[in-house]
Amino acid sequence: MRMVIAGLGYAGSAIAAEAVAAGFAVTGTARDPGRAAAPEGVAMVRFDEAGGAIAQATHLVVTAAPEAEGCPVLAAHAGAVGAATGLRWIGYLSTTGVYGDRGGAEVDEATPPAPGQARSQRRLAAEAAWRVAAAGRALDLFRIGGIYGPGRSALEDVRAGTARRVVKPGHSFSRIHVDDIALAVVAAARQDPAGVRVLHLVDDEPAGNAEVVAEAARLLGVAPPPEIPFEVARAGMSPMALSFWSENRRVASGATRAALGITWRCPTYREGLARILAAGG
């Protein structure tokens, strides 16, 4: 089993380590391999020179975000994908942002997408492009919530004194620990399913920002920062942050877990933050 991970960033590196442990021979790509660090046992190639590795792959994971012109992997390597006679499974990492604002309502794997943000519209367009490029191969579209993990969590913000407990009644975010992304992607790759699947990578408890920050403070044994009403906090938010707060939905993943035969390592943000802390994060 030869897996190529196009984009050896935060999630890609976690997937690579999980895949190596599962017995895959893994090659990752980076724009500048000299400035990237691959997990142990993972080969690395320059992104624009990855055509040969892709042509020999049995499994391909695409983590690279779409650009204005579309998916950079297809732009650079569509020919290699088409020529990969042994390629039997493709996993594309997308976003739950393709569902747009649902006013706090729940969406599941069968909910039609309705992206409101330009970046989410680009993701949905990239999904459509991969449906065509897969050309009869198995394709899993992973729609992923907010990613957190070591070095990227409320724990770091609380320690740094930059955490803010923003309160917006009725508003929640769906999240996923990076280790659970790795768990799900590798489980899906090992199944070699047929056709196209939409899979949700989110934990079991959407939660508000204030709750997560309070739990991080509790784990660190410090007083949580004071609550700030959203209408007050928004004045200091970047346009990107405001765009995230403008959408509210609760994303379910029960069908995904059943299809993959997994349970999350971190079913809520509580276990996720505790996992980071236990690992020295």
How would you sum up this structure, described in words?
- The protein is α/β, with parallel strands linked by helices and 281 residues long.
- 38% of the residues lie in helices and 20% in strands.
- It has eleven helices and 13 strands.
- The protein has helices spanning 10-21, 51-55, 72-83, 118-133, 154-160, 178-191, 209-220, 230-233, 239-245, 254-260, 269-278; strands spanning 2-6, 25-30, 42-46, 59-62, 89-95, 106-107, 138-144, 146-148, 165-167, 175-177, 196-201, 227-229, 250-251.
- A seven-stranded parallel sheet has the order 3-2-1-4-5-7-11, sandwiched between helices.
- α5 (154-160) packs across α7 (209-220) and α7 packs parallel to α11.
- The longest helix is centred in the middle third of the chain and has 16 residues, at 118-133.
Distance between the termini: 32 Å
Provide the gyration radius in Å: 19 Å
Task: Name the helicity range.
Answer: 25-40%
Secondary structure class reads alpha/beta
Shape: globular
**Biggest beta sheet attributes:** 7 strands, parallel
The count of helical stretches stands at: 11
Strand composition percent? 15-25%
Low-confidence stretches: none
Find the count of extended strands (DSSP E, 2+ residues): 13
What order do the helices and strands follow?
EHEEHEHEEHEEHEEHEHEHHEHH
Q: Give the averaged pLDDT, no decimals.
A: 96
Strand order of the largest sheet: 3-2-1-4-5-7-11
